[in-house]
Fold this sequence. Notes:
Layout: E1 2-8, E2 24-30, H1 42-45, E3 51-54, E4 66-69, E5 75-79, E6 82-86, E7 94-100, E8 113-116, E9 122-126, E10 133-137, E11 148-150, E12 155-158, E13 164-167, E14 172-177, E15 184-190, E16 202-207, E17 214-216, E18 222-225, E19 240-244, E20 255-256, E21 262-266, E22 273-275, E23 281-283, E24 296-299, H2 301-308, E25 321-324, E26 335-339, E27 344-349, E28 352-356, H3 362-380
Parallel strand pairs: 7-11, 16-20
Antiparallel strand pairs: 1-2, 3-28, 4-5, 5-6, 6-7, 8-9, 9-10, 10-12, 13-14, 14-15, 15-16, 17-18, 18-19, 19-21, 22-23, 23-24, 24-25, 26-27, 27-28
Amino acid sequence: MIGFVCARSVRVSRGVLVAGVVSLMCTAMPQLAEASGSSDSAFNSYGASYRMIDLPPVSGGSFSTVGDALPDGRLVSTTGNGVYLETGVGTGAFDLVSTIDTGPFGSDPDPAFLRISPDGSRIALGGGFGKPLAVFSTSELGTPAIPTKIDASNTAHFDVNHFDAEWMDNNQLGITAGKFGDPSFVSLLDVTSPTAAPVNPIIINNINGASGGIAFDSAGRLFTGNGFDSGIPGLSETGSHRIFEPSDWSIASPADFEVDGVYLGDILSASSLSMDSEGNLAVGGGDFAEGMTGFMGVISAQAIKDAMGGVPVDPNDPMDLRRLDPLNNGLGFFGSSFNAFTGELFVTDGAKWWATAPSPGPAAALVIFALDLSRRRKRAA
């Protein structure tokens, strides 16, 4: 089945383009492969080639640069007190469009994550250890000519613990977190609730180690993992991943990580999880005690299906786990991200990101078209 992805330029209240590189652009989009084991699946193509992107370098009081993709394919990034917007899909060039009022954070945020809601209307920014989690409207982003201020007048600042996060829907943010000396947990923040009394119930508790990443698939299943082995015999270890159906937990009765859900496998340290459009799960981090380091893993959708049936992932089976190392030296400690518009999976390492996508696919062709158009305009100027 052939469909079409079309993007046209649209302006929101602050002048931020939320769709399109040109006035009207369409590209044929084949139906997604039904199983990642098929020859034309993204899983089999990831890592064949990479496109490197330099996000804005770490600045201010931050120790990291984080980002995410808008529904139109452009990246939004933050470090220090700056928020940056990619100039076009796939350009890898960024403009400062907003500055963050550091008052509510006490100093520059040291961003743990930046997550854009599925409909693109909201941005969640984890301020880092001991700092609030901020949520603001994407429409508050400015332009290079008129940067805006992200402050208390347009931002909700929630004093909630956070390590990583992912949107369950456009109003609820799943958050992995912990308190020193206690097991880690997953909570679900209603970002429309009052900041003075946030609705943020624990939905998965008793992760006997450290917080990991979090992802949701198209069926609403929650994926998370243990980021560090507590050393207690019989409990989960570094990189232990589990899958939780929506029916596995409720606000009144949270799931127990150690006994509930489905065991997926032990992969890296689960410090960064991203789900692609085919249902393949990207996993970041590293387990130095087990010698599982130096790559970003991609667990195939078929392997996930097998785990749901009682057969966990075999990390040594390349059909279960694809290993991506854009540095090609086995020394990286990577994170992950996914751009649903372009179909690109990102291997991340601070401000350096590597995009890999099925080729020669229409999503990659769209990026190439945008880059070629940009170069032609520069030559004509």
